[in-house]
Amino acid sequence: MQTSSKKLTKKQQRQIIRQFATLLSDLQHLEECQIFFESFLTKTEQNVFTKRLGIIWMLHQKKSYDEIKKKLNVSSATISSIARQMDNEGSKLIVNKLRVDDWAERWAKKIMGFFRLKS
User: Fold this and answer.
1) Does the pTM of the predicted model rise above 0.85?
2) How far is CA 2 from CA 5, 32, 74, 102, in A?
3) Mean pLDDT of the 60-74 span
4) Helix or strand holding residue 32 (H, E)
C-alpha cells in the first residue's frame, strides 16, 4: 500500500472523513456494502482491513496470539499493535456490532434447525 508524502490539511481531512462516514451510513444493504468494499479498496487494502477486523474479533474472544497468527497469517507484532487499540472507541464499536451479528447468526441457525425438525 503506498501513500503520498503530500498531506491534506486537518480541515480537508475532517471534511473527507465526514463525507466518507456519510457515504458508509448511506449504504443500504449487504450487497451494496460488498460492492463498495470490493471496488473502492485495493486487494491489499481489503486484506489489511479483513485481517485487522479478524484480529479484533479474535482478541475479543480471548484467542491466543499463536492461534490468531496461524489462522490469519499475521505476526505477533501486528496482533500486539491492534491489541493496544482494543480499548479505543472504534474497537469497542466493532466488537459490539460483531457480537450482535454473531448472536443473531447463532439464533437464526437454531431457529432454522427447529423448523427443519418440525417439517
Assistant:
1) no
2) 9, 26, 20, 34
3) 95
4) helix 30-40
